[in-house]
Amino acid sequence: MFKFAVTLSLLPLLVAGQYNYPPPAPAPAQSSPAAAAAAPSAPASSSTQVNIDVGAGGNFIFKPANVTAANGTLVTFFFPDGAIPHSVTQSSFADPCTPLASGFDSGLQNSKQFTINITNDATPIWFFCKAPTHCGTGMVGSINAPATGNTFDNFQAAAVKIGANEVTIQDSGFASGGVGALATASPAATVSASPSTSSGSSPSGGSGSDATTLVVSSSMGLVALLAGLTLFA
Ligand SMILES: *[C@@H]1O[C@H](CO)[C@@H](O)[C@H](O)[C@H]1NC(C)=O
Ligand SMILES: *[C@@H]1O[C@H](CO)[C@@H](O)[C@H](O)[C@H]1NC(C)=O
Ligand SMILES: *[C@@H]1O[C@H](CO)[C@@H](O)[C@H](O)[C@H]1NC(C)=O
Ligand SMILES: [Cu+2]
């Protein structure tokens, strides 16, 4: 009888151990990543525009080639007039010259502009030009690439390493979608010239990207732009 009573008295402890009772305080649940992500902290109305010249100066480059763009930023690529068509085709860090499944693709273009909308600035976006031989000579670009590790420089070096072994990618025109950025409209006739043509930014991007960033909703942004342009004057 005494033994039975002891066994009964242990029951709550056993139950507690098995079902982890009492439950943890609700505080950790409120600060979970899911709850943090759902918090309406990020302004949805960021109206930033970034312009990138495709094949700037007749070279097989994107200019700038490495930019930072927050969620909601519209990144517009300008394809110049000229005999050589280029493309903006999403790829991956691991395979610079291979289209990413469900990635965006402008298709080979001339005299057009093409815009993507950044939807996840926490994910680097890698892209290349699918015109034969262009990627293997380093015609690649990145958005929100990290400063260390998988950097833009390492991405471009990987493309150049592929070099003449680049596999020719068939052009099937515009593909909507994208990972980390969305393309919703096919390339359209150019309606505004890219200001980056005269910015003198370096081909590899870097600090030059600041000069082509227009924060349209903020006068501070314009001041920053003017300051950036002054640096190149
Ligand atoms: C860009 O995408 C965001 C959602 O990710 C949306 O709220 C915004 O309206 C889009 N901007 C344009 C110009 O389509
Ligand atoms: C941008 O959007 C992505 C996807 O919703 C989110 O994971 C990320 O935290 C957002 N970035 C910022 C700075 O809010
Ligand atoms: C590319 O841009 C990122 C910011 O998005 C910056 O941190 C990085 O240093 C740049 N890399 C190169 C090689 O310019
Ligand atoms: Cu090209």
UniProtKB/TrEMBL annotation:
Alphabetized, the UniProt keywords read: Signal
Q: Which Gene3D superfamilies match?
A: Cupredoxins - blue copper proteins
**Is Acetylation set as a keyword in this record?**
no
Signal peptide start and end residues: 1-17
Q: What is this protein called?
A: Blue (type 1) copper domain-containing protein
